[in-house]
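>> Question from a student workshop board

For tomorrow's exercise we were told to take the sequence and the ligand below, predict the bound structure, and bring the output to class. My setup keeps failing. Could a helper post the expected result so I can at least see what it should look like? The ligand is magnesium ion.
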Amino acid sequence: MRDDIEEIMFTPEQIQSKVAELGMQISDDYRDKNPLVVCVLKGASLFMADLVRNISIPIEMDFMAISSYGASTQSSGVVRIMKDLETGLENRHVIIVEDIVDTGLTLSYLRDSLLRRNASSVRIVTLFDKPSGRKIEIIPDYSGFQVPNAFIVGYGLDYSEKYRNLPFVGILKPEIYS
Ligand SMILES: O=P(O)(O)OC[C@H]1O[C@H](OP(=O)(O)OP(=O)(O)O)[C@H](O)[C@@H]1O
Ligand code: HPA
Ligand SMILES: [Mg+2]
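>> Workshop helper replied:
Here is what the output should look like for this input. Compare the format with yours to find the bug.
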């Protein structure tokens, strides 16, 4: 599996230290708000698990599955809800947890859809931001690392469902998908 990686971009230690920073910021900003922390499956699952352990205030967790990539490195542009939330959003402060914002299509769809359910506020935390990929303007409220225009895998990020379990994040060799 590691032979398919061209270059390691972030080590497990770099990732953990950034996740701790983000957790501290969120704990400060959401004191007494009991936010609902929403994980966007499947990519954000590893980030979610580490992030919530770095949040020191009471929170609730819920999970949503949406998909736009399928077995491709290009977004299809069509966002589908595969699993919806179980929690009502009325008067809730929602934090959407994402692994990566690339075209922005997934999050822009998701944020609008959660705001329509009368959430008090919706903010986005993403571990990775790829601004060069944007097709729609969206600026994450909390962002870990900016990444260049390359397809990255590991720490939850997949190519065709593989590589999510790598403990680091790296650039996939282009010959794997071309
Ligand atoms: O900004 P965008 O171009 O919309 O891309 C970002 C989204 O795409 C990936 O999910 P994917 O649809 O591949 O599902 P997955 O999380 O199950 O891998 C990733 O986890 C983000 O949710
Ligand atoms: O660079 C990426 N890697 C994995 N999944 C993704 N979804 C959007 N961009 C990416
Ligand atoms: Mg994916």
